[in-house]
Amino acid sequence: MSKKKKPAIDAVQRINADIAEVGWSVVIGPDQDGFAYTVGLTETHLQAELCVHGVTDSDLTHRLLDQLAQRIVQDDVPLLGTRIDGVLRDLDLFLLATDKRARDRATYAAARYGSAVRFVQCVLPDATNRFPWNYAVNRWQTFGQIVMAPWPKDDTPEDQFPTMLELMAR
């Protein structure tokens, strides 16, 4: 009689195989709130892990995180706090260093790296191409996306944001 593997064991094996093959794995959270993140960039490329919240289309989320991870790996390391155009077709995003809420939700990354893991959140605009901080709305949740980072100020020069390598050194 064969025993079925537990889903968590299967997930860890898939993550390990992905990291061995391409250097990272994309993990789609179990909740329906669209939280997803990478595991592997920390160890294979000495970069912060990526996360996104509020995108409930898991295929889109997977492609988004894969495309951005590929850019980072190919030394096109974006500056935190900057808008990045056209990651997927015409989709723009903003990168922000997260607070501990991302680590608390990213269980596989936290189990693998502990408190040393750092995350960068990919914040997406709404249908009118405006980001959450462009509205006078609830600071922490808008159009289904929780921003797990301090919001940028419109007048903050981009050169005051750290690079991803500087974030990892913190």
TrEMBL record:
InterPro entries reported in the protein's UniProt record: DUF4262
Protein name in the entry: DUF4262 domain-containing protein
Native source species: Roseiterribacter gracilis
